Amino acid sequence: MIQGNNRGKIKQPPAAEVVKYMINPTINEEEQVRSFQNYVECNKAHVLMLEKQGIIKPEVAAKILEVAEEMTAMGPTPSFELRPELEEMYFNLENYLIGKVGIEIGGQQHTARSRNDLYATVCRMDVRVLYLEICKLFNKMRRTILTVARNNSDAVMAGYTHLQPSEPITFAQYCSAILNAMDRDYARIETAWKQLNICPLGGGSMGSTTWHIDREFTARLLGFDAPIDNSIDSVGSRDYILEILSAFGIAANTFTRMCQDLYVWATPDYGYVEVADEVAVCSSIMPQKKNPWTLEHIKGKASNVEGCCIATWMVMKNTPYTHNNEANGEGPTMMWTAFAEMKACIELLAVTMRGIKLNKELMVKTASNNFCTMAELANTLVRADHISFRTAHDIVAHVVNHMLENNKKASEIDRSVIVPIAKELFNIDSQVTDEEIQLGLDPVKNANSKSSQGGSAPEEVARQLDRLERLIEASEVRVVERTHQLADAKVETERLIQSLLARV
Q1: In the CATH hierarchy, which top-level class contains the domain 16-111?
Q2: Average pLDDT of the residues of the chain
Q3: Where is the signal peptide (predicted)?
Q4: What is the C-alpha separation between 248 and 238, in angstroms, rounded?
Q5: Contact at 8 Å (CB) between 257 and 349?
Q6: 4 pLDDT exceeds 80?
Q7: Total-model pTM
Q8: pLDDT, tens only, 225-248
Q9: Cα separation of 334 and 351, whole Å?
Q10: How far apart, in whole angstroms, are the C-alpha atoms of residue 275 and residue 291?
Q11: Where are the CATH 1.10.275.10 domain residues in the chain?
Q12: Which CATH architecture has domain 371-449?
C-alpha cells in the first residue's frame, strides 16, 4: 500500500512511457546497488541532526532510525520491491518507513530537506565510492609499470620521432616517461576530490530552510570535508562531474599513446615486444596471427571515456544554475559509463604490462643498424675535430646518404667513409679514429652515457623511478586516508544512533 500522496497536486499516475524511460532506470538493480545504502546513510545523518537540533523528538528519531538500521541490514539492495508508481528510490524508502511507523512519525524524516539536496548528496556519495576505486586501481597500475621498468633497465632500443629512428634509449626510460605523464594524470584526478567531497545536504530545494539545522554536523557524519556554502550552489552544482571526466579523458589519452607505441612495437616488422597469450587473440582464418587484443580495446575504450565527457558537457551547458532534471538528472548518466570504461582501461593495461615480453637482442641489433646513433656520431666529430655541431651534422648527413646508397648498415661506418666526405664538404682533415667512431655508433654505450637529468643512463633512470615510486606511495597514502575518512564517518553515525536508542 502506498502511504501518503507523494505526487502532491498531480492527480494522474506517470505515463507508461515516463515509467519506462525515466523512472525504471532510476530504480533498477544497478541503481539500487549504487545508491540504496547511501540514501539510508543520508537519512540517518539527517534524522540525527534533526533530533540534535530539537526539531524532532528523540522518540520519533529513534523509531525512524530503527527502520533505517533494518534497511542497512538488507545489504546492497532493499528486500522490499521498489515500485515505479512511487516515482523514485527515495519515495519507495519513505513509503516503506511510513508503512512501518505511520505517516506522523515517518513523515517527519523529510523535515528541513528536499529531494533536490538529497539527490545531490547521494550522487556525490555514489561517485566517491567509484572514484576511490579508480584511484586505487590507477596506483596499482602505476606500480605494475614501475616494476616492468626496473626489470628492463638494460633493454636498449631505438627511440622514435615521427616513427623514424631517433636516438638510443632504454625501455625503462620510456616507461619512466609514461609514468611521469601518469603522475600528472593522477594529480588531476586526485585534485577533483576537493570539489567532489563537499556536502549539499541542507540546501533544500534551492532556497535553504527556516529550520535551524546544523549542516556541519550532517556533512561530518557523511564523511564530507564541509558543507557547500550556498544553498543554490548546493543543488545546482555538478561541475565536479565535468572535472572528474575531464581528468579521466586526459589520462585515457596517455593510455592510448602508450598502447599505440606498444601496438607498433608488437608488429613482426619491429618485433620489440610481445604480449602474453592471455591478452592476445588469433585470427579465425590466419593461424600465424597473434593480435594484441587488449591494446586495441584500451584505445577504443579510452575514446568512449572522452565521448562520455563530451556528452556530459553537452547535457549540462546552457542549463539554469539551480536544480533541474536536465543537468542534475540526465547530467550524471554518462558518468557511470565513463567510470566503467576507465576501470576497464586501467585493469586491461595493468594485465597487459604484467605479461609483456621484450626481445632485447633484436632491440639493440636494430638500434645498431638503423642509424639512430647518428646524433652521437656528430657529437663525436665535434669532440675529435673541434668543429661546430652544425658542421658535424652536415658531414654525418652525407655519411648516412652514402651508406644508404651503397646498401650498407650504420655499424659499417668508419674513417674510410667519414674522412673523404669531411674533406670534400669543408676541407677538413678529420682526426677522428675508428675506435671513437665505434664508440659513437654503439647504442648501448650511447644510451648508458646519457646521465644528465632525464637521460637514459641506468643510474639516472633509477633515480627517476625512485622519485616516481615515492609519488605513488604518497598517492596511495592519501587514498587510504580518504577511505578511512568515509569509514570513520559511518562508525560515528552508528555510535550516535546506538547512543540515541539507548537513552530513549
Answers
A1: mainly alpha
A2: 95
A3: none
A4: 16
A5: no
A6: no
A7: 0.94
A8: 999 999 999 999 999 999 999 999
A9: 26
A10: 9
A11: 16-111
A12: Orthogonal Bundle (1.10)
- Tell how strand 357-358 and strand 198-199 pair up: unpaired
**CA separation for the pair 101, 65 (Å, rounded):** 11
Residue 13 has pLDDT above 90, yes or no: no
C-alpha distances in angstroms, 470 versus 142, 354, 474?
12, 21, 6
Dist. CA 404–CA 430, nearest whole Å: 22
Which residues are CB-contacts of 362 (< 8 A; sequence separation ≥ 6)? Answer: 271, 272
Retrieve residue 369's grid coordinates.
643498424
From its phi and psi, is residue 54 left (phi > 0), alpha (psi between -120 and 50) or beta?
left
**What integer pLDDT is reported at residue 279 of this predicted model?**
87
Give residue 2's pLDDT: 53
Q: Return the C-alpha torsion angle 99, 490, 480, 352, nearest 10.
A: -10
| Tens-digit pLDDT profile for residues 82-106 | 999 998 999 999 999 999 999 999 9
Q: Are 456 and 443 in contact (CB under 8 A)?
A: no
Q: Where do the CATH 1.20.200.10 domains begin and end in the chain?
A: 117-365+459-488
Amino acid identity of residue 503, one-letter, is R
289 has pLDDT over 80: no
Residue 14 has what pLDDT?
A: 86
pLDDT, tens digit (0-9, with 9 covering 90-100), for 267-281: 999 999 999 889 887
Rounded average pLDDT over 132-159: 97
Answer yes or no: are the C-beta atoms of 37 and 76 closer than 8 Å. yes
DSSP 93-160: HHHHHHHHH-HHHHTTTTTT--HHHHHHHHHHHHHHHHHHHHHHHHHHHHHHHHHHHHHTTT-EEEEE
Runs of H (alpha helix) within 197-238: 215-221, 231-236
Determine which helix (DSSP H) or strand (DSSP E) holds 198, and give its type and residue range.
Answer: strand 198-199
Task: List, in order, residues 6 or more apart from 53 with CB less than 8 Å away.
Answer: 211, 212, 213, 214
Task: Give the C-alpha separation, 185 to 199, whole Å.
Answer: 26
Cα–Cα nearest to 230, from 220, 215, 242: 215
Instruction: Give long-range contacts, CB 8 A cutoff, 24+ apart: 70-77.
Output: 70/100, 71/36, 71/40, 71/96, 72/37, 72/40, 74/36, 76/32, 76/33, 76/36, 76/37, 77/29, 77/32, 77/33, 77/36
Instruction: Give the list of residues 6+ apart from residue 331 with CB closer than 8 angstroms, or none.
Output: 238, 241, 312, 315, 316
pLDDT (tens digit, 9 = 90+) per residue, 343-375? 999 999 999 999 999 999 999 999 999 999 999
- For CATH 1.10.40, list the domain ranges present in the chain: 371-449
Q: If you search the block for the grid coordinates 515505479, which residue do you land on?
A: 84
CA distance to 93, 181, 372, per residue, from 133 (Å): 27, 20, 42
Fold of the domain built from segment(s) 117-365+459-488: Fumarase C; Chain A, domain 2 (1.20.200)
Placement of cell 652514402 in the chain: 402
